[in-house]
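Hey, resending since the last one bounced:
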Amino acid sequence: METERGGETVKINLPLSTVEKILPLVDNEHVKQGKVKITGDPDLRGTDLHGVWEALRETADGDLVTVDGSEGKVRVSKTGSHMLVLVDGEEEKVEVKVPLAVVDALFSAGPDELDVLAALRALGESGEQELVRMSDGSSKIRIWVDATQNP
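The structure tokens again:
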């Protein structure tokens, strides 16, 4: 991760292999062994998120959601081997690009879980690429996978 603000650059290099070792150490009612329970959210009850992802995965490339608001525009699309989220606001711009293989791994757990650990592993296998780019006029944030940090 890299952040620029006021002429300063801050870089945080956190190898995915380190995160993979830390994540299983988190153990609470929502996160256990690198998996996140999603059944506790009342807004998600009765929603088959795995089924929703399978349907989206099989959808042709193109825009899936577009929101045009008074403060900006949000677009979610599937393009090739990635899901894209673009936010173009009055003050900020955000681009998120996630490989489909990472989302597949996230949904590889049981029906009421997200496998974050599997998603991290898939991210490491996806090779060097930029994941997030954000700017708000005075600051810039960039998150990417650096192949040199994740042999």
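Residues 49-58 form the longest helix (10 residues).

Sorry for the duplicate.
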